[in-house]
Amino acid sequence: MIRIALAEDDPQCVQQLSQYIEKYGRESGQRFQVTSYSDGDRLVEQFRSQFDIILMDIEMPLLDGMSAAALIRQTDQEVIIIFITNMAQYAIKGYEVAALDYILKPVSYFAFSQRLGRAVRRLGARQTSYLAVPVRGGVVKLAVDELYYVESQGHQLYYHAKDQTHVSAGTIQQAEEQLAGRGFFRCNKGYLVNLERVEGIQDGCALVGGDRLLISRGRKNAFLEALAGHIGGGRP
User: Fold this and answer.
1) How confident is the model at residue 230 (pLDDT cuts 50, 70, 90)?
2) Which residue, 48, 55, 161, 202, shows the most beta carbons closer than 10 Å to its own?
3) Do domains 2-125 and 130-231 have the same CATH topology?
4) What contacts 225, CB < 8 A, 6 or more positions away?
5) Which residues of 173-187 are buried (b: 16+ CB within 10 A; e: fewer)?
């Protein structure tokens, strides 16, 4: 069961999107549970990380979708957010809150099904995989999705995970090979970043797990391209 929050102040749009979700469910065999909210403030007030996907209108009277998403991201970095808007220029701002995608109004079923399908595939790709990290006295088993970034200092690697940092011998090239195909990309010669954990880009730095990691000039374009591709549903 995939749990969807639908935040939209237009009752007709709510009805249309609910019908689209039902139709996609019949076609794909997926089961969905939909909870509707008439405004962003109601969603934020009742949000307890209970949803897998949030479909959210940007323009709502009390709390707009972009502000609601920013508040939700303070407590939940995992929930998938898709914006619904009639103005394409809002799409760029979606990167600030790690939105997966946006849908332009009036919403066609084809466009909606493409975006919802992408979100469903992203959920499937989140199945936990693990990494064995040799440390002094043994080996640590790390969940890859809880690894924020790997830092290289000399001949030591620092695996910055959700709860703590683990130190291992090795090179950043070895870590890069070990994490190939798992959504990691180097922002400079000393940092290998989990693109899923990038909270934003600010002043030439990637914001990851509360840290600011410098994006080198030589890697900037490639890193931003990899990040955009990852957010769009691909892999670097």
Assistant:
1) confident
2) 55
3) no
4) none
5) eebeebbeebbbbbb
- Separation CA 36–CA 175 (nearest Å): 43
Q: What is the pLDDT of residues 41-71, one digit of tens each?
A: 999 999 988 999 999 999 888 898 889 999 9
Superfamily name with CATH number, domain 130-231:
LytTr DNA-binding domain (2.40.50.1020)
φ/ψ bin of 105: left (φ > 0), alpha (ψ from -120 to 50), beta (otherwise): beta
Tokens 């405004």 found at: 39
The model carries a pTM of 0.56
Strands 32-37 and 53-57: unpaired
Domain ranges of the chain: 2-125, 130-231
Mention the CATH class of domain 2-125. Answer: alpha beta
Phi, psi of 142 (to 5 degrees): -110, 135
- Give tens-digit pLDDT for 118-150: 999 888 766 667 888 988 888 888 888 889 999
Q: Do β-strands 198-202 and 205-208 pair in parallel, antiparallel, or remain unpaired? A: antiparallel
Q: Please give the single-letter amino acid code of residue 45.
A: E
Tokens representing 220 are: 């900037």
Nearest in space to 52 (alpha carbons), one of 81, 20, 94:
81
Pick from 200, 233, 184: which is nearest to 94 by CA? 200
Averaging pLDDT over each range in 21-25, 133-137, 178-182, which range is the top one? 21-25
Phi, psi for 202 (deg, rounded to 5): -150, 130
